[in-house]
Amino acid sequence: MASDSSKVWTVMSLVAGLGAAAVTRKVLDRSWRVAAGKNPPENPADPDVSFPEAVVWASVTGAAIAIARMVAQRRAAHYYARSTGHLPPGLRAGDTR
Q: Of 3, 4, 88, 94, which has the fewest Cβ atoms less than 10 A away?
């Protein structure tokens, strides 16, 4: 039973994180186009992208996607806890990673 619970949580957490990252990336791309008047850098490591632009893009996308994934996974954990009556595996007191 614990193994099934762990698998369910793993899938829930993964789907929530990936979904949040995808939506956040679309919002960031659109916001960059509006703010900068051009498409965001496809690859910030490309020498044709200015260093300041690459740093801003990498910083903004990294932070925003990390926060979105964390929020989505916290919401998934809350839903899991409401549905099962206990926290997901790895979040319970005494669980080790």
A: 94
- 56 assigned to some structural domain: yes
User: Is the pTM higher than 0.90?
Assistant: no
Please enumerate in sequence order all residues whose Cβ is within 8 A of that of 38, keeping only pairs 6 or more positions apart, or say none: none
Domain containing residue 47: 2-84
91 inside domain? no
Per DSSP, 95 falls in state -
Angle between helices 51-84 and 2-36 (to 10 degrees): 150
Query: For the segment 68-81, what is each residue's pLDDT rounded down to a tens digit?
Result: 999 999 999 999 99
pLDDT tens digit sequence for 17-69:
999 999 999 999 999 999 999 999 988 889 999 999 999 999 999 999 999 99
**Tokens 């789907």 identify what position?**
15
Decide if 43 is inside a domain.
Answer: yes
Cα torsion at 46, 47, 52, 57 (round to 10°)?
-10
